Amino acid sequence: MTMLGELNKHQIDNLLLSQAVGRIGVSDNGRPYIVPVTFVYDGKAIICQSREGMKLEILRRNPQVCFEVDSMLDMSNWQSVVVWGAFEELKGESAVKAREYLFDRVLPLMTVSKIHPAQHEVTAVIDDSNRLKPVMFRIVITERTGRFEKR
Q1: Is domain 3-150 in CATH 2.30.110.10, yes or no?
Q2: At 65, is the secondary structure helix, strand, or coil?
């Protein structure tokens, strides 16, 4: 028997806290644009980093944003959350704290734990500089909803 339903506040929080990749949807002059991002949820906002590009250009012009994250075991067992909110670029100490929070959560997921020395050059220092993106921002959540299907 398959059950469809709505996620409650606690279940929505759990899904947002358990995932590291979501999708940001923006609109520019009636043209939608969606892109995956690495994120962390702090209980009130979605925190992300970015390089300069189309996503940031659109967000700066139109700060209204939609964000989606999901978890899927199979076609009959999934959860999905959609949040709406406002883009806010972070500067100074706010950006530093947001980056630390994001990296504390996401960096362990990005670093491969096993590298075979015979197949790869191994150095004493891991270079994560390509993972550091100059712009930190958050999506301050104004509305959210969640759905699920469970067999």
Answers
A1: yes
A2: strand
